């Protein structure tokens, strides 16, 4: 009677709840909507949010006076100017896009395919692979600290991240997409409509996502990839014990004018961002890569490449533009084997004046490698999204 | 009277003489090394100028401790022990080591006794004698020989003083400050260097005074640097005496505002022994002064004689370094000013291009002043005085002298690198802590607001914890110790964390 009624009531209400829940969830399944968390409203590590909702780079190198715009010097020198001032939402949207294979023609390749956080934001290959596993001409550089670079690509042919990314996106060999197809794909994904509306609040509600918004968001994310907390940095900021005896010996070889490494790989970024013709050999069977000669239409830059940063270098083997050297030891050996020793016959390259015959001993070369390993820091490694707005899988979830 | 034997007389006088010498030596001869004067940090002693002063430029007192290094021990160990403000005194002896100074305000002073120098000998095996990156480094009174790379090399240290050193064959450069601001290089003697004896590279505000450089490829090189005074130096028998350059391909692109004044630039006819590929390897022997692509260089009151190619060569990059190409380096020497100089007996045996060009002028001698290539706005005070080539577009100079410019050193030292405690806290928080901690949510470690709650009003608690973390939470990974941060930074970040609002 009374007890029975109560039980009946409970059962009834549970049933109603259950039916409601069933309806609710089946409705969810019936659309192409994948639940994606809202965009982050906080800046990634290394950035402070200001009152204008902009992320401003703040790190221990900001302690030091800016004595030159190039951001070159010694241990306690300021960095060059960085691309910052993006909103947390732009950066987070860029993160989703960066990891999303929906950006490629066949939906298999994302930016992160070649710039993998598990491989030092490189891909560990001598040269990268594009659509259909096609071998490209050069290796993928690490993206750590890319927001500080004034020239992009090995041959320096792009000067902004936005300009740079158009090539891999729309090259037939790389991601194989077209601007039209990319915009069609992204605009058709309801999640992206919402996320772009959130990241770019000034846009009209029904406005289509445009290419500038895509490239700006990806540039915002790329500029947030920082690495300034290595053992070397601890030493530079004044903690003597951060480096052991061998590593300090290596640092002293590195910055000495005998080896001259620091003349081009200048701290604190470990690149002076200039071009240099150093005359490294190509992998067997490949012709000489003319490098910056092509985009700058300048014979004197034949075989010239932009000096790469050495941060996280131990994580990004193999080395040089086409990955000829498998190990750091082989790489440092190259610099003491003689000026122009690997230049192919018939080529007359204008080898950089710092390439000479320093006659480094095996001991010194080993110490150099010890030192280079102290440039590793992935404490601000980006977080791979668990779920992508497109519903596709990231390389993280697929492996 | 018994006659003393002559032998005894002789022995006696020898003994007496011996006693005399001994007494003399003990009373007068012994150098009291306790009275070695403290380095004065005196920055100006140009006797020639009326308003000369020996005032202590930076009013720096050596209040730190004095660390003595004697024969058989290591200078580097003393540097390790030293704190900013300390003075390291090195006594005579041979020290075969590479000394690196990654601290601020360390002074190294050699103590010369009886003509015996503290000598750093690289034995052609060690790369550099001194490498420094700190600000306020002073290095004086050392003999430095047989290194592979440099005698003294600086990377980005400001307010440096390098003086009274005797440097022979230290490889590529003798004294090479790079990326420094406000420095003094004076009273050094350098020879047998395979590139530049004194190389001021990518620096600002450097005075190079009273140095003797000889038997080097380049005597002094002011390269991609601004506001440099090269005065009262004696450059002789180098391949090239004094150089003011822009080298293309470097991250800092300009050289301007350079004064070459009151120098002796004499007989710089040494055969070029520069390394193949180096910029100086292209300098023809017999070059007194070379100005390549540098702007606003004043050449005043020098004695420039006996340089067999030319007294002064002024060229653009296309002429001087035709191989290099850097679209961001402006390659013309503009607004060069030649004031009064004593020049004769130059160009007796010109070589290479200059010889060929002069032959077209029916002249077998090189000129006192040779200009070739681009550039505009250059002037000369008295063109008629010299044998010149290529100075047709040089007008009369607008100034007669530079006497009002006594030094390019800054009136006050470049201020130390310092930020407020609050800013240091902020930089440490965002630059280091933010990798694992966010204010309101969990990243790798607990949210910052939780840390605030635990250590409320107790920054020392945070300092203690981050120095030696204990893993208190099972569901969180153990925090690595942040003991590499300075005590100052640890406290600053602790205070910053406790004051955070969001």
Automatic annotation (TrEMBL), chain B:
<feature type="transmembrane region" description="Helical">
    <location>
        <begin position="7"/>
        <end position="28"/>
    </location>
</feature>
<dbReference type="InterPro" id="IPR036909">
    <property type="entry name" value="Cyt_c-like_dom_sf"/>
</dbReference>
<keyword id="KW-0349">Heme</keyword>
<keyword id="KW-0677">Repeat</keyword>
<dbReference type="InterPro" id="IPR009056">
    <property type="entry name" value="Cyt_c-like_dom"/>
</dbReference>
<dbReference type="InterPro" id="IPR039448">
    <property type="entry name" value="Beta_helix"/>
</dbReference>
<keyword id="KW-0472">Membrane</keyword>
<dbReference type="InterPro" id="IPR012334">
    <property type="entry name" value="Pectin_lyas_fold"/>
</dbReference>
<keyword id="KW-1133">Transmembrane helix</keyword>
<dbReference type="InterPro" id="IPR006626">
    <property type="entry name" value="PbH1"/>
</dbReference>
<keyword id="KW-0408">Iron</keyword>
<dbReference type="InterPro" id="IPR011050">
    <property type="entry name" value="Pectin_lyase_fold/virulence"/>
</dbReference>
<protein>
    <submittedName>
        <fullName>Right-handed parallel beta-helix repeat-containing protein</fullName>
    </submittedName>
</protein>
<dbReference type="Pfam" id="PF13229">
    <property type="entry name" value="Beta_helix"/>
</dbReference>
<dbReference type="InterPro" id="IPR051550">
    <property type="entry name" value="SCF-Subunits/Alg-Epimerases"/>
</dbReference>
<keyword id="KW-0812">Transmembrane</keyword>
<keyword id="KW-0479">Metal-binding</keyword>
<dbReference type="InterPro" id="IPR022442">
    <property type="entry name" value="SO_2930-like_dom"/>
</dbReference>
<feature type="domain" description="Cytochrome c">
    <location>
        <begin position="420"/>
        <end position="501"/>
    </location>
</feature>
């Amino acid at each position: 009677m009374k007890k029975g009624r109560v039980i009946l009531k409970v059962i009834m209400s549970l049933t109603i709840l259950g039916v409601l829940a069933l309806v609710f969830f089946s409705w969810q399944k019936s659309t192409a909507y994948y639940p994606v968390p809202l965009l982050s409203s906080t800046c990634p590590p290394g950035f402070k949010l200001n009152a204008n909702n902009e992320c401003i780079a703040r790190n221990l190198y900001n302690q030091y006076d800016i004595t030159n715009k190039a951001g070159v010097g010694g241990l306690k020198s300021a960095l060059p100017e960085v691309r910052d001032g993006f909103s947390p939402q732009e950066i987070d949207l860029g993160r989703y896009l960066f990891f999303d294979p929906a950006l490629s023609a066949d939906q298999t390749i994302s930016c992160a395919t070649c710039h993998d956080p598990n491989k030092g934001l490189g891909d560990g290959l001598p040269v990268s692979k594009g659509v259909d596993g096609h071998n490209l001409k050069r290796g993928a550089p690490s993206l750590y600290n890319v927001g500080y670079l004034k020239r992009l690509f090995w041959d320096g042919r792009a000067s902004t991240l936005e300009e740079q990314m158009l090539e891999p996106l729309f090259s037939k060999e790389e991601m194989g997409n077209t601007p039209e197809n990319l915009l069609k794909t992204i605009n058709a994904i309801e999640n992206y409509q919402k996320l772009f509306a959130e990241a770019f609040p000034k846009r009209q509600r029904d406005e289509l996502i445009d290419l500038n918004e895509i490239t700006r968001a990806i540039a915002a994310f790329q500029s947030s990839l920082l690495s300034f907390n290595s053992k070397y940095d601890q030493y530079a900021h004044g903690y003597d014990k951060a480096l052991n005896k061998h590593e300090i010996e290596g640092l002293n070889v590195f910055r000495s004018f005998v080896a001259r490494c620091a003349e081009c790989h200048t701290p604190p970024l470990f690149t002076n961002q200039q071009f240099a013709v150093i005359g490294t050999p190509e992998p067997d069977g490949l012709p000489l890569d003319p490098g910056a000669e092509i985009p700058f239409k300048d014979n004197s830059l034949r075989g010239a490449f932009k000096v790469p940063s050495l941060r996280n270098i131990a994580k990004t083997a193999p080395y040089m533009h086409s990955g000829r050297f498998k190990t750091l030891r082989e790489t440092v050996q190259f610099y003491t084997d003689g000026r122009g020793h690997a230049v192919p016959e018939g080529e007359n390259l204008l080898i950089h004046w710092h390439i000479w015959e320093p006659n480094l001993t095996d001991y010194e070369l080993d110490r150099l490698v010890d030192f280079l390993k102290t440039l590793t820091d992935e404490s601000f490694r980006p977080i791979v999204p668990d779920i992508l707005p497109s519903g596709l899988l990231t390389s993280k979830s697929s492996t | 009277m018994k006659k003393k034997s002559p032998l005894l007389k002789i022995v006696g006088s020898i003994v007496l003489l011996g006693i005399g010498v001994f007494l003399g030596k003990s009373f007068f001869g012994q150098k009291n090394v306790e009275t070695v004067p403290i380095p004065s940090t005196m920055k100006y002693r140009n006797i020639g100028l009326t308003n000369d002063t020996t005032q202590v430029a930076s009013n720096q007192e050596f209040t730190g401790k004095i660390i003595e290094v004697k024969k058989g021990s290591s200078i580097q160990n003393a540097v390790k022990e030293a704190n900013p403000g300390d003075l390291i005194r090195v006594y005579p002896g041979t020290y075969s080591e590479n000394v690196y100074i990654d601290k601020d305000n360390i002074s190294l002073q050699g103590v010369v006794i009886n003509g015996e120098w503290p000598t750093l000998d690289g034995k052609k095996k060690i790369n550099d004698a001194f490498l420094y990156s700190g600000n306020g480094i002073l290095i004086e009174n050392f003999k430095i020989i047989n290194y592979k790379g440099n005698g003294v090399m600086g990377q980005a240290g400001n307010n440096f003083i390098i003086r009274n050193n005797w440097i022979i064959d230290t490889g590529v450069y003798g004294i090479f400050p790079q990326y420094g601001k406000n420095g003094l290089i004076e009273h050094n003697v350098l020879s047998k260097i395979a590139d530049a004896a004194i190389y001021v590279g990518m620096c600002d505000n450097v005075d190079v005074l009273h140095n003797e450089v000889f038997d080097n490829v380049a005597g002094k090189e002011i390269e991609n640097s601004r506001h440099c005074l090269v005065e009262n130096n004696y450059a002789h028998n180098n391949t090239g005496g004094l150089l003011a350059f822009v080298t293309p391909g470097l991250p800092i692109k300009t050289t301007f505002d350079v004064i070459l004044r009151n120098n002796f630039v004499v007989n710089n006819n040494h055969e070029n022994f520069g390394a193949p590929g180096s910029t100086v390897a292209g300098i023809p022997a017999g070059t007194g002064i070379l100005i390549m692509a540098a702007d606003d260089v004043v050449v005043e009151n020098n004695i420039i004689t006996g340089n067999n190619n030319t007294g002064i060569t002024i060229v653009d990059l296309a002429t001087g370094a035709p191989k290099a190409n850097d679209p961001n380096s402006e390659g013309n020497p503009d607004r060069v000013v030649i004031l009064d100089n004593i020049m004769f007996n130059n160009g007796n045996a010109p070589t290479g291009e200059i010889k060929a060009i002069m032959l077209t002028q029916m002249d077998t001698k090189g000129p006192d002043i040779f200009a070739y290539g681009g550039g505009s706005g250059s002037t000369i005070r008295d063109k008629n005085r010299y044998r010149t080539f290529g100075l047709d577009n040089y007008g009369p100079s607008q100034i007669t002298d530079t006497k009002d410019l006594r030094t390019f050193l800054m009136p006050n030292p470049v201020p130390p690198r310092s930020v407020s405690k609050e800013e240091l806290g902020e930089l440490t928080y965002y630059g280091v802590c933010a990798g694992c901690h966010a204010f309101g949510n969990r990243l790798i470690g607990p949210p910052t607001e939780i840390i605030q709650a635990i250590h409320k009003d107790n920054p020392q608690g945070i300092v203690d914890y981050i120095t030696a973390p204990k893993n208190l939470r099972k569901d969180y990974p153990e925090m690595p110790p942040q003991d590499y941060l300075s005590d100052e930074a640890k406290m600053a970040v602790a205070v910053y964390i406790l004051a955070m609002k969001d």
